[in-house]
Amino acid sequence: MILEYRHIIYLIANIFRVFSINLFLETIFSKNNLRCSQELKRTIFILYYISNSFIYLHYRIPIITVFSNLCLFFFLTLPYYSTMCKRIFVVFCIFLLGILCETIVSRSSILILGHIPSIEVITYTISNFLFYIVVILTKSILGREERIYQKGRWAVLIMIPSISAFTDILALYGGYEQWITVSVIFCLFLINIAFFYLYQIVVSNYEVEIQNQSLMLQNKAYQQQLDMIHATEDSLKRARHDFKNHLIALEELSKSHERTDLQEYFQKLGREYQLSEDYICTGNTILDGLMNHKLKIMTATGAVIDTKMQIPENLDINSFDLVVVIGNLLDNAIESLSKQKKGSFQIEISYRQGTLLINAKNTYEGEIIRKGETLISTKKNATEAHGIGLSNVRRVIEKYDGEMMIDTEDNLFNVHIIVYI
């Protein structure tokens, strides 16, 4: 069989379609969910390309094309761990998306250009770009790694294939020599593949950076817990050291029958060892320990404190994440209250039907300027720590698809947090 001009265009376009299908499968099944090696997966996709191209070029019967596509799509799902129902669902998604893209392009081309000889070739190429755009949008909605980027990123990703599709139409409809048209189309497909490959490298590098920052947050959480443990141990050591002497003093006072002196000694002893007083007692060990430790520091600033807690003992949230969120909120409040003569702090934490609600507010002095999602304080030495703390909180909340809203009106720094657990 001698390859014609339209056949060459189809073979080039089919390479790009295989690339797009691979991206779609990685989005649905996760690229880390492979049940075989990457080499075997590549072999399967190469076999798919050869089989699909052979069937299209030799058997142009619709029933055979539909049946072979469904079988080959199912073949492409085999490298991933999944249930049979999900595999069938994904197969039909790919098939229907492909049919939809081809229908949209072919009907639009006929309406705009009419029944020209190159309408079939235009449908091949442009429908593949449209399918690629749909895959990018799917990754933007479903892909976990995509959430680390700013909103509107998909518009930039779609720009490249959209411009490429427009350029393809100009090349196919411009009456250029066939070898020029083939070269342009091939280069455009190659540019799109290279662009997305470089984009994935950037995503991977950014994910490594996020993981490193997560390790830093975990180390900070460890340090905060160790600080609480050390503070408790120091209190116990001091109490043990003086315990024997206090027992001797109490024994002597009891022998002297001086009840007044004995009562005064008990009162003084109670005031001296008031270290065990708890502000929070929810039954959640980590949360209680962290908040009691931080609120004692906050009390030393002279601030008025109001707390409301309605949470179960066991929350389905990583303990490190909980320490990072609550710890940073309290640290920021302590920093702000330490610069005030008469400040106030309120915090309310409640749990309702899988949703953790946190509302923390404290007074502040000075001016806070918003720069996007970043808050900049006019106070010296407050900008960096405050900004980093809130960015760490936001990063943890995004892991749980939660939300954080900040209000700074009337010199009241108010943070609303919703976490879905």
Provide an overview of this structure:
The structure is a single chain. Mean pLDDT is 78; it is low at 144-151 and 378-385. Strand 1 (304-310), helix 10 and strand 2 (344-352) form a beta-alpha-beta unit. The radius of gyration is 33 Å and the shape is elongated. It folds into two domains: 5-206, no CATH class; 280-420, Heat Shock Protein 90 (2-Layer Sandwich), CATH 3.30.565.10. It has helices at 5-29, 38-58, 62-77, 84-113, 119-142, 153-173, 178-255, 259-272, 285-299, 319-337, 383-399; strands spanning 304-310, 344-352, 355-363, 368-371, 374-377, 403-407, 412-420. The protein is α+β, with helices and mostly antiparallel strands and 421 residues long. 67% of the residues lie in helices and 11% in strands. The strands form two sheets. The protein has a five-stranded mixed β-sheet with strand order 1-2-3-7-6, covered by helices on one side. It has a two-stranded antiparallel sheet with strand order 4-5.
